[in-house]
Each structure stands twice: as structure tokens, then as C-alpha cells.
Amino acid sequence: MFHIINPKSNIDFVGKRKMWITLSVLFIIATIALFFTKGLNYGIDFTGGAEVKVKVPAGWDTGKLRSTLEKGKLTGLKILQLGDAKDSEFMIRAQEDGKDLNQVTKQIQTSLEADLKENEFEIKAADIVGPSAGGLLRKQGLLAMFYALLAILIYVSIRFDFRYAPGAVLALFHDSIIVIGVFILTQKEFDLTVLAAVLALIGYSNNDTIIVFDRVRETYKLNPSLPIEEIVNQSVNQTLGRTLMTSAATFVSVAMLWAFGGHVLEPFAFALMIGIVVGTYSSIFIASSMVIVLAHYTENRNRSMRGKKRREVKLSPEAHIGI
To answer: Which domains are seen in the chain, by residue range?
Structure first.
């Protein structure tokens, strides 16, 4: 059978686990610092605003439409072309803080009427998101991520045991934070589609982690006397080819969606592209490293409890009188 990577390879992934964990912690700290200093570029889903779908004469592009709207004193607009260029349909997104958002549609209509006759354009749809609704969506988005991580923690605890579950959840938390950090750095718009991508990433990355954990458990059952470091390293090497091939195939599919899916899907696909890379990294280096850390913690705790019980037996009065 053809293998991209020999399943019997012995790359030392866990030997430098402290370096990988330190690097990831630094990334997370940097992301948190950027969040409170630079902040996310929230879309109107989270800040409030208006989305207006318009149809204009053939031959118009985003530049022409933007120029017309700016004449009407509408600034800070995001204009997306919908469908084929011949359809001449655009989505106008306007964030008008401190204004009556219900007046945005009227302002757009007035601006278009300055350059076009009434029968030359059409406002096909208009949606308004108020600031309070945007704040509620932010809160619900954070809760959705929290509940997803909590559900995965419970699932992994039931399927495996305590030594595996925290590593899986920490890896997923790590992936989500890094993706958010990239959006802060690039200042790409963070809206509901990007949040959906982060939630999809949590499920996708967890699948890779579960594959590694399954192999760790199988290797431990076959070789219970081996050190946990060797067991984890063997398991990661044995699943490496499968992990890389799956990630590569998924990345290519998402990259095509990013390249040809249009402006509406571009942020969603971009988030998934970053997430696939980061998720592959975390499955190999972070989740597996946490298994080792928690295995040593459990072993030390059990050893301490056994020592405590032996001391209690020695100090017990009944032990001295032969009871």
C-alpha cells in the first residue's frame, strides 16, 4: 500500500513538547492582548447596521456604486457583488452608529435617485440590525462556543477518561483563539459567518484529535509497560499520514471556496483555511502533549495517595495490636 509517510516512522514529536506548549501559550497571550488593544473588526451582525440589496443598470461595478452613494454622504460602506456581474446586484452594508438605522435605506434610495431614474434601479431587500441585537448576538456566539467545548469535554471524558478530555478541549480552545487572533491582525470583518466557521472548526479539529487519542489508547493496551511519552509518540507517528492527507484534502476544498466562492463566502472560507492548519498543528503537538502532562499528574497523584494510605496504616493503633 502507498503511504505518504511511513507509519513506522519515529519522528520525535513529544521530545520538544515544552517548546510547542510555550509557543502556543505565547500566541494565546498575544491574541488576548490584541483583543483588548486593537479589537475585532465586527460586522453589522454584532455592531448593528443595515443590509440593503439593490439592482442597478448593467455595467455598474462596486466602484461606480460606491461613488454614487458617497455623493449622498453615505460613508464607511461595504459593497459586495452578488451572483454574476451581468445580474448587477449588490449587497450594501452600512454601519451607522448613533443614527436611526431605519433611515439608511431611505438615504441609499435618495443617493441612487440622484444619478438614476426610478425605473433604472430596484431595492430588492433591506434588513436592519439594531445595536442591542448585535450585542445579544455577540453574547450568544460566545455561549455557543462555550457549550460546544463543554459538550466535547463531556463526550471525550465518557469515551476515554480524564487524562484525555482536558487536552482535547484545550486544543480546540487554542485553535479558536488563534483564528480570532488572525482576524484581529488582518482586521477582516468578523461576522456570523466567521463565527459559524469557528464552530465548524471545533468539530473538525476534534475529529483529528480523537483519531490520535484512539491510537494512544490502543497502543497503551498493547504495550502497558512502555513510558507514556513513547506511547504517544508512536501513536502520533502512526496517524501522521492520515492526519496530513485529510487536512490537505480539506484545505484544498476550502481554498477553492475562498478563491471562487465570492465575497460573501470569503471570510468563512478564510477562517476555515487558518483553522485547518492550526487544528492539524494542535492535534499533533498540543493535544498529545497534554495527554502526557495529565498522565504524569495522575500517576503522581496516585503514588501520593498510596503513600498516604501506607503512612496511615503504620500510624494506626490497630496495626500495632495486630487487628
So the answer is: 17-41+133-309 (1.20.1640.10), 49-129 (3.30.70.3220)
Tell me if the pTM is above 0.70.
yes
CA dist 249 and 270 (Å) reads: 16
**Rg of the chain (C-alpha set):** 27
**3-state secondary structure string across the chain:** CCCCCCCCCCCCCCCCHHHHHHHHHHHHHHHHHHHHHCCCEECHHHHCEEEEEEECCCCCCHHHHHHHHHHCCCCCEEEEEECCHHHCEEEEEECCCCCCHHHHHHHHHHHHHHHCCHHHCEEEEEEEECHHHHHHHHHHHHHHHHHHHHHHHHHHHHHCCCCCHHHHHHHHHHHHHHHHHHHHHHCCEECHHHHHHHHHHHHHHHHHHHHHHHHHHHHHHHCCCCCHHHHHHHHHHHHHHHHHHHHHHHHHHHHHHHHHCCCCCHHHHHHHHHHHHHHHHHHHHHHHHHHHHHHHHHHHHHHHHHHHHHHHHHHCHHHHCCC
Cα atoms found within 13 Å of the Cα of residue 2, Cβ hemisphere only? 2
Instruction: Quick: pLDDT tens for 253-305.
Output: 999 988 887 767 888 899 999 999 998 888 888 888 888 888 777 777 777 77
Cα separation, 50 vs 69, in Å, equals 14
The closest alpha carbon to 153, from 287, 292, 297, 301, belongs to 287
**From residue 233, how far is each of 12, 89, 101, 155, 205 by CA, in Å?**
7, 54, 57, 24, 19
